[in-house]
Structure formats: C-alpha cells, structure tokens
Amino acid sequence: MVRLCRYVTARMEVVIVKIISRDSWGAKPNKTKFSKLGEVKGLVVHWSAYPVAIGNQAEMDQLKQIQRLHQVDRNWNDIAYNFLVGDTGQIYEGRGFGNRSAAQGGNSRQEINYNNKHYVAVCWLGGSKPEDQPSAEARAAISWLYEQVGGELRPHSSFKQTDCPGDAWRQWIIEKKTATIDELKKATNITAEDLSNASGPEMVHPQFIQKKLDIIIAKLENIETKLKLGRLIQ
Ligand SMILES: [Zn+2]
C-alpha cells in the first residue's frame, strides 16, 4: 500500500502530496538520528548516475540500490537525498523535508555544513550517460518540489566540480523552465483512493516552525515586559 505524506509548506498550507514514504518503498531505517535542516536557501538537483529507471518497480529497485551504496559501501547514515524523483513523475521520500541531506559536499567542512544545512536535495533516478534526458513528468515533479521549497534552484555542479546533474538539467535550471499547469496536475494527481491511504508522516517546512517560534518568543517577551512593569509599580 502506498502511503502519502501530509506536508506543511512554507506558505503554511497543509497539502497532501503523492510522495511515496520510506516504508512504502522499503527503505532501511537511518542508522542514527538526522541533523536538522537550517534556514532553507533553495533546492539542489542531482542525478543518481545509474541507468534511467523505467517504471515504478525499477524506480523503487534503484532507490534501494542507492541506499545500499550510501549506507553500506560509503558507510553513511542513510540515502543522501531529501527526495528522489523518477521518470514516472513519482516523488519518493529520502531523508524527508526537515532533515539535512548529505548530497552537496564541498571541499571544506564549513562548506559541507553550509551546503547541506541550507539546501534541500532532490535526485533524479537516471544519468548514467551525459546525454540522458529526464522525462516531462520528472521535470514537472521537480518543479512542484521547487514551488514548495522556494529560494534558489541550483545544479549540484554549482557547488563543486562534478558532471551531476547532467547538461539537460543544467539547461533546464538556467532557463528556469517551469512546468505547465497540466504537467503539475499530472505530477501531483491525487485520486480518491490515494486520499483514503493518506496517513504518512507529517512533514513540516522548517520556515513554518521558525515562524511559530517567532510568535512564541514575541509572546514571552511581552509577558517578561509586563512582569518587569508589574515589579516597578509595586
Ligand atoms: Zn549530485
């Protein structure tokens, strides 16, 4: 059964999106607790450098392959990306929204922290050849994610010397081609059956939490001022 994610966007809207949750694609648990994502500066696009996955089953097989590569061969905590997208247009949950990725490493420790702390990472399930082209559905799904994340849209190669995510994505990012309404609808098409299965983990945009914290802090400061005033009057 496919579980969907209930997701709170930066605009404080609650939306149910067709993101296949970790347990639905058969992810292994993360080894240790994730570090939290900081203030979000944008979305970074990657490719998996595996042959393009064709169909949902191949996409889920590739997710497991990438997780094994990252957790076992590289001894990382978990699959590096926050989200992964296949040519079907399906979005899969990696580390999820509020967690720090491990995908935008730089040359210095500070840079690694910065790139991963402030940028959400999405990986397209393809790219074993430089000329590999993502489908219109994959592009629409990444457009949709970018709408939710906001800020800058960057290729991995803007952080370090790498072919990732390939010329097709780099061109798409430069031209800032956004998906048409029809493409977006197709990428996020939710059926009645999907809705009845929507019981996934709630993912909350960090900026939403920050806004809530700002409100609480303002209230506390107000109370503190009133207490000080009260003491002065006594
Ligand atoms: Zn990359």
Q: What features would you describe in this structure?
A:
- The protein is of the alpha/beta class.
- It contains 8 helices and 9 strands.
- It has helices at 22-25, 56-73, 109-118, 136-149, 167-175, 181-187, 192-196, 206-233; strands spanning 5-8, 14-17, 19-20, 42-47, 83-85, 91-93, 119-124, 152-155, 202-204.
- The strands form 2 sheets. The protein has a 6-stranded mixed β-sheet. Strands 2-1-9 form a 3-stranded mixed β-sheet.
- Strand 5 (83-85) and strand 6 form a beta hairpin.
- Helix 4 crosses helix 6 (181-187).
- The longest helix is centred in the last third of the chain and has 28 residues, at 206-233.
- The protein is elongated and about 75 Å long.
- The mean pLDDT is 81.
- Residues 46, 103, 156, 164 line the site of zinc ion.
